[in-house]
Design brief:
mainly alpha; Methane Monooxygenase Hydroxylase, Chain G, domain 1; 2 domains; 13 helices; 80% helix
Length: 368
């Protein structure tokens, strides 16, 4: 009995952890079967094209599905118009002529797709419009109309399933990705300042920064999808742009701090800055982690004033060091790292204010 309970808990935990991927699998399966049924009911010539379109359009989030549907329809329209025009107005009564016409139909569309990858379906559509009439009794015009209709049906089914069946909004995923990024930044900041007095291993530094870079790349993609949802009025959410830009600036601050942490500062700077730096790093890391939790819960950000006071205290210590002339005897490299550290913390202070505002903007928004 206990074993069954444990297995059930593990299964539930696994389902929660992979719920987005499981939901996607269900949506793709449903979109394929519904698209095939609709294509048969409409007696479309190539139900395969309808099913493939529905599967391609059904994406991880509603925003991505919307973009895929629009891109696929635009690409299909362009390919059908060009392919149909070439097929109608350029004679191709024998195989050599058909080969030349095929090249004429594909070449310009392939060039367009090379510059705009989201229109990659255009040359494929032109090929189908041109070649299907050679295998059936359809005319080029009928073939072009059939392709457009099949894509409209398949795209509509795919988007409808994405929107209605266990929908996953890119806005939700963006908020979760931003929270994970903030937690990573908190861990990195703790590590950087914990190692600052002794110098940080370069390989370890790159590993930490690369992890944040990957998270921001994921967030950037989700933010673009979320904006498609906002533009189509599918959701009423905060703009993801300011939050993304703030996290990018915070990452840049951490990069500067990481570079200064590769070698320890010389005495007496190290002893003068160690204590205020440690207090600041701990408070800043806790603030980042707290903002991550509030972002997930859609609650206002914690007040930044206590952390800002520690930033002010650290900057005051840096000013005192400079006024006392302790930087005059530094080597150029040490002086550069000292001033870069002060600049990074001053920028981080400003970016923390932006972070407070961005997280608060997301407060009260539905999290599911």
């Amino acid at each position: 009995m206990n074993r069954a309970r444990v297995l059930w808990r593990l299964l539930r935990a696994s389902l929660r952890r992979h719920r987005i991927r499981i939901a996607l699998a269900l949506r793709v399966t449903t979109a394929a079967t519904v698209a095939f049924a609709v294509a048969q009911s409409l007696a479309l010539p190539l139900p395969l094209w309808v099913v493939l379109t529905a599967v391609i359009v059904t994406q991880m989030s509603v925003g991505r599905s919307l973009k895929s549907a629009v891109d696929y329809l635009v690409g299909t329209l362009g390919g059908a118009l060009w392919g149909g025009a070439v097929a109608v107005f350029v004679p191709h009564s024998h195989e050599l002529a058909l080969l030349a016409v095929l090249a004429l139909a594909v070449a310009p569309l392939a060039l367009v797709a090379a510059f705009y990858p989201n229109l990659a379906v255009a040359p494929i559509t032109a090929i189908i419009v041109l070649l299907v009439p050679t295998m059936t009794q359809a005319t080029p015009l009928a073939s072009a109309l059939d392709r457009v209709l099949e894509v409209v049906v398949g795209g509509s089914v795919g988007f409808a399933v994405s929107f209605l069946l266990l929908p996953t909004l890119a806005q939700q995923q963006a908020a979760e990705a931003a929270a994970r990024t903030l937690e990573q930044m908190a861990r990195v900041l703790r590590t950087l300042l914990a190692e600052f007095s002794e110098g940080l291993n370069t390989e370890e530094l790159h590993r930490l920064q690369d992890g944040i870079g990957r998270s921001l790349f994921e967030l950037s993609a989700l933010a673009a999808e979320a904006e498609h949802e906002r533009s189509a009025r599918l959701v009423v959410e905060a703009d993801t742009g300011p939050l993304l830009r703030t996290l990018l600036r915070l990452r840049h601050d951490l990069v500067i701090i990481g570079r200064t942490a590769q070698l320890p500062l010389p005495e007496p700077l190290r002893s003068r800055l160690a204590s205020p730096g440690a207090r600041l790093a701990g408070a800043a890391a806790e603030y980042l982690a707290a903002c991550a939790g509030e972002l997930r819960a859609r609650r206002p950000a914690p007040a930044v004033l206590p952390v800002a006071a520690l930033f002010d205290a650290y900057n005051a210590q840096i000013s005192a060091v400079r006024e006392q002339g302790l930087t005059r005897a530094l080597h150029a490299d040490a002086a550069e790292r000292f001033f870069a550290l002060g600049f990074a913390f001053e920028q981080m202070r400003q970016n923390f204010k932006d972070l407070e505002r961005c997280v608060t903007d997301w407060a009260g928004r539905p999290s599911s």
